[in-house]
Amino acid sequence: MLSLRGKQPQPDDCRFREVNCHSCGKKGHIQRACRSGAKGPQSQKSSQNQTRTGGHRNHSVSTSYRPMEDGEPNVSSSNKDTNEQYVDSVNTDESDLHYGLYHTLSGVKTNKPYLITLVVGDTNVPITMEIDTGAARSTISEHVYKSSLAHYPIKDTNITLRGYSGEKVPVIGSIVVTAKYGGTSCRMDLLVVKGSRPSLFGRDHLSKIKLDWENIFVVSEPKPAKVGIQNLGNPVSPTLENLLSQNQKIFSSRKWLFLDDESARLLVMNTHKGLLSPKRLCYGVKTAPAIFQETMDKILSGLDNVFCYIDDILIATENENSHLKALEAVFARLNMHNVRLNGTKCQFMKSKIRYLGHELTSEGVSPLQDKIEAIQKAPRPTNVSELKSFLGMVNYYGKFVRNLSSQMQPLYALLQHNINWVWSDDCEQAFVNAKNALASNQVLTHFDPNKPLVLSVDASPCGLGAVLGHRYPDGSDRPIAYASRTLSQTERIMPKSKKRLLPLFLGSRNSTCICMALISHLSQITNR
To answer: What processes in GO biological process is this protein linked to (predicted)?
Structure first.
């Protein structure tokens, strides 16, 4: 807390002329300028409250400075205004009105002082001082002066130091020294106080000495920041869409990471048999899928027609010869990295295979019938949580249903904030339509770069829809994938000219994998 007072204002110009003192009750001054020495109830209460320092050391010093008038003797008197350095914990409303008043707030919750060692004078005398941002002046004790700095003459000073409780700290005088710290040096005016008090490095020299402020202060509240392992939180890739962008007909599938000692210690589990340390990457680790996927991608990198989703390896080719070559390459790569497969869970040379909730055949991809039956038997949702679960199951197979989001608009409306749960007839109809749409046995064809693509888009007042398909020589179209979503409140009030572009953007964004495969195919043709 710092108070700097310049030349005293004239009585007619004083801003506190009509203010009542909280100490003596008289008008014309504030409590800090009161000379009566009496303390009112409010002052005593404030002083009692403020003297509780929370248990940590505090050597804050405030300054109340008035330049000496001409002819005024260079003495200290309790009845006259003098240059005073004091610690005052009284914090009343009048403090906010005082000229040039500053409050120093500390957020450091520790009892450990911050110390620096200065090298003083030509003789390089080391002086250890405690950094105190609340101290207006730097001080050393009489003991330090006599033991290390006695060769510096003491000059008289009219500055008075006061403690929190108001008692005076006796000041012997001041000395002027040259101090060095790190690569900087400055002239310091140090006050010498009686006794063996701590040496304080105050605010008067903080700007002159270059300190490592980052290590000294810990006053800011913690804020979330980005870290260097963000890739572990990204969605695991590749996805099923990467596979669907290939024209494959023969499949092989299969359903292991040892931990080093340092990682194993972090995953110790408390069991009824004591503490157990896993040897392999176990379930429950948040970043385990991303770590495992990254490892498998490195092992199988560079192999054509090979797809891996975490621990499921899929080989998909157009014919048997290329399939056998791909199998041989995968086995060689796994053997190189000491990866073993469970033969009972492997399937080889199949024309139909179940993979990630889908059935893959030479004709295309379709949802698993047992998954569709589970959706058909799903009960009517009774709350928002159950509705989200149902919509999650349906949307996983949304690529098989045209304009699915528009059909389920009444259900999505129940998910909005500040909407009461009311299961209306429209909700019931949308619930039944979603089940019936998934029961249509729709089969999506494989992407073939040699066949022409057709992208059909549509927009309704409440949703968008897109269909990407192949056009066959007979003129018929077979879908590769469907995409749909509902419109936000902002999108619903867009002009029609802009709203017509939204489904086109939706279709192109959801067909990124196929578009990239087509670009790659065209690039191979161009390079031939």
So the answer is: proteolysis
Element (H, E) at 465: strand 463-471
Q: Are residues 260 and 345 in the same domain?
A: yes
Residue 417 is inside which H or E element, if any?
A: none
| Residue carrying structure tokens 């010498």 | 192
Q: Please state, in angstroms and rounded to a whole number, the distance separating the CA atoms of residues 528 and 523.
A: 9
Single-letter residue type at 24:
C
Question: How sure is the predictor about 409, in pLDDT bands with cuts at 50, 70 and 90?
Answer: confident
pLDDT in tens, 96-152: 322 222 333 344 444 567 788 888 887 788 888 888 877 778 888 888 888 888 888
Q: Do 349 and 255 contact (CB within 8 A), yes or no?
A: no
Q: How would you classify the pairing of strands 115-120 and 125-131? A: antiparallel
Nearest to 243 by CA among 357, 335, 337, 401: 357
Query: Are residues 336 and 286 both part of a single domain?
Result: yes
How far is the C-alpha of 461 from the C-alpha of 466, rounded, in Å?
15
Contacts of 113 by beta carbon, 8 Å cutoff, 6+ apart: 57, 130, 131, 198
- Retrieve residue 43's tokens: 């002052």
Last residue of a domain, one of 195, 216, 237: 216
- Total-model pTM: 0.43
Give me the long-range contacts of 413-416 (CB less than 8 A, separation at least 24).
Answer: 414/384, 414/387, 415/384, 415/387, 415/388, 415/391
Q: How is 179-201 classified by DSSP, letter by letter?
A: EEETTEEEEEEEEEESSSPPPEE
Residues counted in the chain: 528
pLDDT digits (tens, 9 = 90+) for 153-163: 999 888 877 76
- From CA 410, how far away is CA 395, in angstroms rounded? 15
- Asked if 246 contacts 303 with a C-beta cutoff of 8 angstroms, the reply is no
- If one counts the domains in the chain, the total is 3
Cα angle for residues 383, 389, 390 (degrees, 5° grid): 90
Residue 18 belongs to some domain of the structure: no
Q: In this predicted model, what pLDDT tens digit does every residue of 479-522 receive, in sequence order?
A: 777 777 778 878 878 887 777 777 666 666 665 555 554 444 44
For residue 116, give both structure tokens. Answer: 């620096």
Are 17 and 76 within 8 A, CB to CB? no
Q: Are residues 377 and 504 in the same domain?
A: yes
Domain that holds residue 209: 115-216
DSSP letters along 149-161, please? Answer: -TTSPPBP--EEE
- Omega into 238 within 30° of 0, i.e. cis? yes
Nearest in space to 430 (alpha carbons), one of 399, 467, 387:
387
Residue 75 covered by a domain: no
Identity of residue 350? K
In this structure, the answer to whether residues 211 and 125 fall within a common structural domain is yes
Instruction: Confirm if 409 and 430 have CB atoms less than 8 A apart.
Output: yes
| CB 327, CB 348: distance < 8 Å | yes
Residue 239, number of CB atoms within 10 A of its CB: 13
**Residue among 27, 9, 146, 106 at smallest CA distance from 66:** 9
